[in-house]
Amino acid sequence: RKELDFKGKLYVAPLTTVGNLPFRRVCTDLGADITVSEMAMASNLLKGDRKEWALLRRHPSEKCYGIQVCGGYPDLMARCAELIDNEVSCDFIDVNMGCPIDGVCAKGAGSSLMRDTDRLKNVVRTMAAVSSTPVTIKLRMGYFDDPSKYVAHDIIPRAKAWGAFAATLHGRTREQRYSRLADWSYIHRCADVAAKSEFTLIGNGDVYTYEDYNAQVADNKVATCMIGRGAIIKPWLMTEIKEQRHWDISANERLDLFKDFCQYGLEHWGSDSMGVEKTRRYLLEWMSYTHRYVPIGLLEQNVVPKLHLRPMRYVGRSDLETKLASDRLEDWLELSEICGLGKPDASFKFVPKHASNSYTK
To answer: What keywords is this UniProt entry annotated with (predicted)?
Structure first.
């Protein structure tokens, strides 16, 4: 099997819709070491679904690249792992055991696997048996929002024996979804257990500054942090962690990141009218998160906002900075024009695909 080392590497989470190839290129430019595809359904891959296979495309700049698959049954997942192992260039296969979406759980996949440890074990064992590519797993603390029913601390010490190379633990339950802060005390409890068997554990949840990152890896038991919403809202977080500083990024520098995304999008999806509109839609999906960033230069000294909260409205240091903070579609469309995508068709409509429920309007 391929040799992998997650220790101290900056790991961008698999992000449905937003975590597309152009976005991952932006993250790689800013210092990401490990990237993962958007979650792909194993059943659709086995059917040869072109849209699902498109999620697996890798850019040469992605130095360490994983493919995340989701499915609930050992035979299905084993065939999928074997297919990926034979047909796709990747460094590891990550099994999603944490997705909280109702439709996914209803199929016995995602978080529902945590309700059936025997089936979860057999999924890992069969995939590891047929794949020369390392298999990793991504868990939540448990299915139910009840500390007495958390199961990750029971799964993690056995996962290595089942054939898993590493595990990522998101410090929330399925019932919790993305509400409340991640429980890092529980992640560290699981890291203590993982360390006894020399098993790699990666923590996930609410890493928004280099100080957050440093605090969670300080004891060397958590190999690194998987960065999700922090990477969407401020992808320069990877640079901040590597350079150990807060970056008071300017509005023009933020706009340049959108321009890079548009360039990468046109290369990936094409520069015809369909490619332009697809690039625009994915740019707007990303903007539905980025407007939540509050420039640290507008805050009191030594105050860094938690990005899980909806920020108060503010006036930026320039008109562009104010526009970047807008949650109005009209402003997002104007920014997409500035980035070189031109005016959208008069019939263009857009509603963000995902709305975080960690805050209310």
So the answer is: Flavoprotein, FMN, Metal-binding, mRNA processing, NAD, NADP, Oxidoreductase, Repeat, tRNA processing, Zinc, Zinc-finger
CA–CA distance, 94 with 160 (Å, rounded to integer): 14
pLDDT at site 298: 81
Name the pTM for this structure.
0.93
Q: Report the CATH number at residue 51.
A: 3.20.20.70
Among the listed residues 64, 90, 99, 105, the single catalytic one is 99
Which distant-in-sequence residues (6+ apart) come within 8 Å of 37 by Cβ? Answer: 14, 19, 55, 56, 57, 58, 65, 66, 67, 68
- Domain span holding position 63: 11-243
Spell out where the chain has E strands.
Answer: 11-12, 34-36, 40-41, 64-70, 92-97, 135-140, 166-170, 200-204, 225-227
Query: Residue 1 corresponds to which tokens in the numbers above?
Result: 């099997």
Q: Is residue 353 situated within a structural domain? A: no
In contact, 77 and 67? CB cutoff 8 Å: no
Active site residue 99: yes
Q: Which regions in the chain score pLDDT beneath 50?
A: 356-361
Span 351-361, pLDDT tens digits: 887 654 443 33
Contact between 266 and 279 under an 8 Å Cβ cutoff? The reply is yes
Query: Per the domain annotation, does 41 fall within a domain?
Result: yes
Looking at the structure, tell me whether residues 239 and 97 fall in a common domain. Answer: yes
Rg (CA), the chain: 20
Distance CA 112, CA 99 (A): 8
Bridge partners, 92 (sequence order) = 66
